[in-house]
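Incident log entry.

Two folding requests arrived from the same account within the same minute. Monitoring flagged them as a possible duplicate submission, but the sequences differ. Recording both here for audit purposes.

Request one:
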Amino acid sequence: MSQFENALAAYQGFTELFQSLIISTVSADNIPNASYAPFVMDERRNVYIYVSGLSTHTQNLYAVPRASVLFIDDESQTKQIFARRRLTFDCTATLVERETELWKQIVDSFEARFGEMIQLLRDLPDFRIFQLTPIKGRFVIGFGAAYEVNPNDLSTLTHITSERKE
């Protein structure tokens, strides 16, 4: 397998290693906030978070419906702290209206993944589901091994070289 094929295979299974993600949002006053949330993902790589309406990141998503999400290898599992494998997506955020068909489908996915806790959260009126739709992304697997996620096909990557910088 080529280096690119190895990177693509690692990318395609990377999010399956995690139950939660790190989410970065910004308030209407441009105050940043970093937090985390459990998630589920659909086949199109849309990310869904089920969060309290009282949390800072939820309030920020209402005010500024954009977020950056980060999936990153645990420090204890990495050989080089400066080169941890990580995937970031810049996303648009959309509230999934409660009791719609999509909402029920996503809650069922959360329950399948996280069990009985979702039965409790399902009945709490302050919990919300947001769909985070990636508009661009980057997958880094080491030094000199950074890949841009194709925004038109989130299942593919393009190697970032020194000739092609952002």
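Request two (distinct sequence, not a duplicate):
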Amino acid sequence: MTTVPGLLAVIDMQRVFAEPDSPWAAPRFDEAAAGVRRLLPAFAGRTVFTRFVAPEHPQGAWRAYYDRWPFALRPPDAALWRLVDELADEAGTVGLVDAPTFGKWGPELAARLGPDGRLVLAGVSTDCCVLSTALAAADAGVEVLVAADACAGADDESHAKALHVLDLYRPLVRVVTVDEILGP
């Protein structure tokens, strides 16, 4: 397997987005997970997994958000926040970044990336946490690749719209496929 430059950030591949009966289920979660599994060997030792977790005490506009989604006000160790089983072991060996925000770009990811690095994003939800992470990283001057076929949205239309918006940020953000990342 060829090594690909950069850091792979696997965004929020958690049970709350995987389980079909969850209010936050991403219908194509399994397809995104298949893309993530294809990427992992090329980023051996250069992968980080993230988790969206609820804050203990929501502040500001987050209060209204959790009024809408009260089921999600659970501690970080709650079952809904766990990574899906197929990826949990991998995350245990490479690292985990938790955040109570949609965007996961911040000091922890920046430190793992290093100066002048490339950030490859995969995961869920394209139209929320992936989008928020990509734009914040791009604003910080990071080259961002979004693996379209290793992401899933709240629905197909939202996924497609988010990819379209992300592609408007070229050359800072490029929407690509897993095959394009892995190369020949």
